[in-house]
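User: I'm curious whether this sequence folds into something compact or stays loose and floppy. Could you predict its structure so I can see for myself?
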Amino acid sequence: MTTDNRPVRATRPTPGIDALLARLRARVTRQVWLHGLGSVAVVAALCLLCAFALDWWLHLPVAVRWIELATVIGLPTFVLWRELVRPLARRPDRTGLAVLVERAHPSLDELFVSAVQLAHDPDPSGEPELVAAVIDSAEARARTISLDPVLAPRGPRRRALGGAVAAALVLFVMAANADSAGVFFARLFGADVHWPQRTHLAIEIPSSSLPANSTLASATTANGAPAEAPDIERKVARGSDVQIIVRAEGEVPDEVTLHFQDGHKAVLAAGGGPEFRTVLRSVQSDVEFYATGGDDQDEHPRALLHVLQPPDVAGLCVEIHPPAYSGLPARTEFERDVEVLVGTDVVVHVLTDPLTATGHARLLPEDRVVELSKQPFPPTPGETESGAAPRDGLGFALHPEKSLRYRFELTDSTGLSNPDPGLFGITVIEDRAPEVEILSPGRGDFDTVVGGLMPLRVRAEDDFGVAHVSYTLEAAIPGEGAQHPGPVELSIVPVAVEARTSANEPGRPARQSTARSAVLARTRLEIAKLGGTEPVSEGRQFTLQAIATDIAEPKPHEGHASPLRIRVVSNDEFMRRIQDRLSRAQTSASALGELVREKNRRTGELLSALESDGPEGATAELAAALTGQRRVQGDARALSRELTSCAESVLYARLDDRALAALDMIDEKLAQQSSRVFDPTPWRELAAASRDRAIAGSGLSGKLVDISGMALEISEDLAQQATDEMVHAGEAIDLAKVHDRLQAASVAQKAMLARIDALLERLAEWDNFQSVLMQTRDILNGQKSVSERSRQAATSPK
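Assistant: Here's the prediction. I'll summarize afterward.
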């Protein structure tokens, strides 16, 4: 397609074709202008908006702004040349326009192109008639040809519309931000104009964590510019925590950065509002910092924290004066929490650094404030020996009734306070009530008969002393009388106890080694007299409770033992219960015999292994054999305790008048015991006396004492001997000594078996004896019943 636009002399006028091509050329020109101007407008608007946004958000330096200006001017100019100037220069000529028409109307079959070329050719080739016919035909068709299919105007119109919208958008943005637009264009063309700041940061340091005289200084130059001095200065105590608040005004950024003089940075995230908070923990040296965020990137305001040495506690001393009744000496504790007895007077001394500091003590949890007064600080043991001069300190007196904590809040001459006052404690220990325990009877339920005795032995133990021990006795069923419904004093005997270090005992004043005071109170109660003025009959029940009172002042404490229930039963029922207990003891003795046989058989196997060619394996089984023997000893002791308990019950029931001497002897021996621990010695002495002098008689009580002596011989002599031999066998190194010890243990076990068999025979005799007694008693009761019925029949009228 040629672009030659030189004037051509028409050989024949073609007004129709000329008009058609002129209209088409005008349309082409209009669309080129629409496309070019729209493209230039879009590019120029985008460049302006981008430059405006970048400079708005980033505050670009001058060099970058010059690049922006070159872009804003150069890029639209390039687009203008490429999209408008060059397309206008390359518009098609008449032949090209005819070709465009031919493309839109293929049915013309190159009629317009031929006519345009022939009409302007001064010497057309071909027959004149044919040339004229072509031109006339084209001229005729020119009046009916539509130019709408030739060009597509939608694209240029859209480009022009886009350019108009972009230009309108730029105008709207600039008009809406007229001040900013003015700053932008001034900065774009090189002027040194600053953008209006959208974010302003302010630093606040709350005074709650600072001393009262901390200062605030705001320094500026004469023209309003920040000076070199810090904008905010504060005095803080060394080691204190300082809270920092950065408050944003205007546009709140997502985060704020604190810049410290050592190069360290701290990023503070937004907390949902215009405030950004952080805490400087335990400040030790001067700190200077400033904050940046959003478009506030200057170094102001700057904050400076001056760290000063705060007053502190240099020494602590607590004077403790216990109550007089406790008998505890006064003492002095240094540098520590203390535990004191309730009623103690306490004086707390504190040594301050510097010595001129003043303040008060805050008592927690009641939050009570006690002013500190000038008092001399007690010398330490080392200072007392060296003769050092006393020092001045502060202190306060206290009479604590319950545990508390306290701290010292000090202030020096500059108004600086101690940031970490510390927390000290005074634990107040209550004076516990005495611990009361009924040693005898050893069970909570005591069964006896009307003519029996009840041994009452009570042990009371207290921290500082027992003043009284008593008991109350009440009928278990309301309405039935009792001999002593009120407290009855018991005679008490001091008991020696081991010293205890109360620091290892919960609830005691710490670091004191004291001996608890213990007493033993005892008496014997006649069952027949428990009802007072009313006779005691079978089936009656009483409740006895032991009470101990200590020496505490002003109000003593009472301790109560567990209630003891006393049941009065008939002689027959009492003997049936004794018989049941002895039957169970007989079963336990049989089981003990089987266990001893098993352990003796195991001991024989160990001896055989030691006598074999490989004795080394037998030594590994010695520990298991010793464990088995300890079990035998434990079961034997349980059996002996049960049998002695049966003998004790029968003796105190006084069913056998011939055993009263034995009762007096065992009562005197047991009265000396001050604990529940079973002591076999009194019973072994009673068994020996019964054999030698027959003080227990030959009846019911004598047989039980004899049986108890046999059980004690098994548990305390033979079982102990076998156990000791097993222990020595395990400790021996020489196999020969191991063999000898096992041989001795086997002999002791066999002796145990013989005594157990003898014990079982005596228990069987006792069973037969009791059966005969019960049958005889039944016969006597039957005879009495027959005699009573005969007497009633003889006296009744016929």
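Summary: Residues 1-10, 209-227, 499-513 have pLDDT under 50 and may be disordered. The first helix runs from residue 15 to 58.
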